[in-house]
Amino acid sequence: MRVCDLPLSADFVSHYESNGIEELYPPQEAAVEAGVANGGRVVAAIPTASGKTFIAELAMLTADGPGLYIVPLRALAREKYETFDELPGVSVGISTGDFDSAEEDLSEYDIVVATSEKVDSAIRNGASWVESLACVVVDEVHLLGAPGRGPTLEMTLATLQRRVPDLQLVALSATVDNPETIASWLDADLVESTWRPVSLRTGVYSDESVSFDDGTSLAVDVPPLGPKDDADTEATVSLVADAVTNGGQCLAFVRSRREAESLAERLAEEDLSPATDLGDELRELGGTATGAHLADCASTGVGFHHAGLRSSHRAAVETAFRERRLAVICATPTLAAGVNVPARRVVIRDQKRYTGDAMEWIPVLDVHQMCGRAGRPHLDPYGEAVLVGDDTTRDELVERYVEADAEAVDSQFADRESLRTHVLSVVASGFADSVAGVVDVFAATYYAHQQSDVDLTALVSDVVSELERMEMLTVDGSTLSATTLGSQTSRQYVSPTTGARIVSGIRTIQTMADENVTPRTALEVVCDTPDMLDTYLGNRERALMYQYARTHAAEFTTAMGETESFEDWLTAVKTARILHEWSQGETIEDLVERYRIGPGDLESRVERAEWLLGAADALCGALDSDVPEFREVRALLSP
Questions:
Q1: Residue 28 marked as a ligand binder
Q2: EC top class, in one word (predicted)?
C-alpha cells in the first residue's frame, strides 16, 4: 500500500514522500485495514521503529476534529511536538506544565501533545476542550501496568471515553503478552506484529563470543584482564568498540547512574570517535562537575544519560546521538522508555538492579525495550542486541530474556493511594455524587475489565470512609460531596495524603509563634509529603541532618519524637534544607557537591517544590488561613 492511496490531502502526501515515506510498512498497512484512517479504534502492539508514529499521525490527520497525543514523559512530549509541528498546515500545542489549570487555549490547536497527568488534571479542572476531541492517541500504553503512572493513564482513558462517547482511540504499545486484553477493554481492533524495518538479532555474550538467536555468532576480542579490571565491563568495552569501529553507534545499558558515568569514563579512554566541538558545546550548558564530566567524555564521542543530569544535558545528548555526533551513550534503562535514539548495537551489561531491598532481575519488557533500540532505519543493515553474561549465567539469560515473551500488562489501579486520589477526583469533578455513581465510573477502568469479579462497591465504600476521615469528602445518607479542602486538593492535583499532610502543617503553623514560622517551615511541610521526590540520605549525613533538625526544631511542624518514620522525615528535612539554601542563592555547583545529588535531582525537586508550595497556598485559602511563607519561598525558588 502506498501513501498516495491513503485518504490524505496532496500536501500531506507530498510531505511524506519528500521524507522518503512512499510505501507503508506491513504493520502500518494492517492498521489501515483495521480502520485507523476511518475513525476506527486500534491497538498497535508492534516493535520499536516499525512505524507507530505514522499510524498515530494518520489517525489524527483523518479524524473529524482535534487530536490529542498522550505521552508518558516530558522529553517524549517535546520530541513528538517537534515531529508533528513539521506537518504542513497543522497547528500543534504542547502541555506538560502546571497541574492547576484547564488551559482552555489548547482548543485552538489541531493536535495537542500532553502527558497523561496533564490530561487528567485538565479534566479535573473542567477543561471544555476535552469534549471537542475527535481522536486520542496513547503512546506506550503498556505503561498501564506501571505503579503510580499506570492508574492515572487508566483513569484518564476511562474518563475520556465517558466524556466523548464517539471518540476514536489509538493505543500504541511495545509487544506484550496480553495486548488482546487492552484491545478488548478499549473496544479496539488489535494489530499485532513482530515485523521490523531493520532485522534484529539478540544474543548473549560469554567467553569472548556472542551466540545470537538466529544461529550466528560473533567473536569478541577482549584484551587480557588486569588485576582491577571488571570482566563484564571490559567485555562491554570490546563490544562497543567493535560496533563503532565498523561504522555503527552503540547504546550501553547499566544499572545505575554511577555505573553509567563510570562506563563512559572507561570508554572515553578508547577515544573511539573524537568530538571536540561537542564537548565544548556541552561545557557551555552548565558548570557542574557532572556537566564537566559529561563534556570531557563527549569530546571522545562517548556520552552518558541518566535522571541526575540536567534536562538540558539529557536533551543535548539525545540530539547529538541522533545527529551521529556521539558514537556511544552509556545509560540507565530509563533511556529506553520511548525516546528516539536508535543504534546499530545495544549492549546490556547489567540485567539486575537494586530495588531498595535486594538485587532483582529487570523485567523482560524493559529489556525488550532496550533491545528494540538496535537497528537504525536507512542506516544499518541489521540491529544487534547483546546481553553480557558468562558461562554461569548464559543459559539463564537466554531463557529469561532472549526466548521469553514480555510480561502481561496488569492494572495497578487497586493501589490504595491511587484509589483515594481517583475517588476524590470523580466526586470533586462532579462525575458522581454517590458510591454507586463512583462505581459506575470505575466500572469502565482497565482494572474492572481485568477483575470482573471484584466487589467495586465494597472497595469504593472503604475508600470513601478514609476520605471522610481525611476531611476530603462528606457523606449525607447516600450522597457524596467534596469538602472545600477535598475540592482544592483535587484541583491542585496533589494526592489526598499530601493534601491532608499540608492541612495538618497549616493548622500547626497557626499555633506557632510568629517568629518561628520561616521559609524552612513552609519547605518542611511540602517536603514531608508523598508527592515530593525522595532524596537519598547517606549514612554520613544522618548525624548532620539530625543536628540541623534539632537546631531548627522550633521552625518545624513535626516534633522529632512524633514521626511515624523518623528516617523518612529526616530525608524530608534534607530536601527542605537543600531547597532553602537554593532559595537563598547557593549555586547548583555547591549544592551538588555538598549534598551528593545530581543537577537533575535538584532541578526536579525545585520544580516539585514550586508546585507543592502553590498547592499549600491554595489550601490555606480553603482553611481561611494565610501562610505567606508558602508564596514567598515559591517566588524565591523560581529562576
A1: yes
A2: isomerase
Cell numbers linked to 629: 511563607
Q: What dihedral do alpha carbons 145, 150, 151, 153 form, nearest 10°? A: -130
Residue 96: is its pLDDT beyond 80? Answer: no
Check whether 272 has a pLDDT greater than 60: yes
Burial 501-521 (b: 16+ CB within 10 A, else e): bbbebbebbeeeeeeebbbbb
Neighbour-count burial for 265-301, b at 16+ CB within 10 Å, e otherwise: bbbbebebbebeebbebbbeebebebbebbbbbbbbb
Residues 492-500: what's their mean pLDDT? 96
87 and 109 in contact (C-beta within 8 Å)? no
C-alpha cell at 339: 525516546
Residue 310 CA to residue 320 CA, distance in Å, equals: 16
Residue 106, pLDDT score: 82
Model confidence at 357: pLDDT above 80: no
Strands, E, within 174-226: which ranges?
A: 189-192, 200-206, 209-212, 217-219
- Does residue 314 carry a pLDDT above 80? yes
| Residue corresponding to grid cell 535531582 | 601
All 3 cell numbers of residue 510?
Answer: 497557626
- pLDDT of residue 455 exceeding 80, the answer is yes
Share of the chain above pLDDT 90, in %: 79
Cell numbers found for residue 630 = 508558602
Choose among 348, 342, 347, 379: nearest CA to 362: 348
- Supply the pTM of this predicted model: 0.92
User: Could you tell me which of 323, 332, 333 has the C-alpha nearest to residue 376?
Assistant: 323
